[in-house]
Amino acid sequence: MVDTSRGDAPAPPGEEPRGCLFALSQPPLMIFLAVVGSLLLMAALHDLFLL
Fold first, then answer.
1. Closest Cα partner for 24 from 15, 16, 33?
2. Full-prediction pTM beyond 0.85?
3. Over residues 23-34, mean pLDDT
4. What secondary structure letter does DSSP report for 20?
5. How much of the chain is in helix, strand and coil states, percent to nearest 5?
């Protein structure tokens, strides 16, 4: 049988592992996603109404 454990000790109780929601809560990432989303929205509206 193959040992699939990483050998790392679990995180101490006071320190929780940070996941995807922590990354999404960062302001620079949210600003970047908002800019990309607004550009996609403007492109979609341009295609729908002006072409």
1. 33
2. no
3. 86
4. H
5. 55, 0, 45
